[in-house]
Amino acid sequence: MKNLFPVALMLCLLVSLSSFAPVHADVPVIKKGLRAFSFPITGTTDGTPGAGQPAGTIAYSISGSGTTPSTITFSTLSGVSLGTYSYSLSSTNNYLAVGMKTQTSISGTYFHISTACLPGYCLEFIGAL
After folding, report:
1. pTM (two decimals)
2. In Å, how far from its chain's centre is CA 107?
3. 89 in a structural domain
4. N or C, where is the chain less crowded by C-beta within 10 Å?
5. Over 60: is that where the pLDDT of 22 sits?
6. Is 41 exposed, middle or buried (0-12, 13-18, 19+ CB in 10 A)?
7. Is residue 34 part of a domain?
């Protein structure tokens, strides 16, 4: 009986371990990092198409390279340009463009790179309608 116990134990271990699958080397690994986005970034926001004009919807287009925005251009929906304004680094991953108040109702735009924002960045219009 003493000789049978090690054999029975080995058989139980063999049966229980045979259901495990080996780990494959090509298993994908999820890495935490900034989400990828590419320029140009386009959209619309509320604003005025020029000083003293009635409020409406204006379009914007942000250009840049990598994860760094360089300029934002505003235009009317019909394509009339309301100016191009440069972004400057205000702090790590934070960019600010100002000076568009004379052409739009927007005082500035704030571009913040963050994994907390779904596309990898947050865009805030300062002083918009």
Report:
1. 0.69
2. 23
3. yes
4. N
5. no
6. middle
7. no
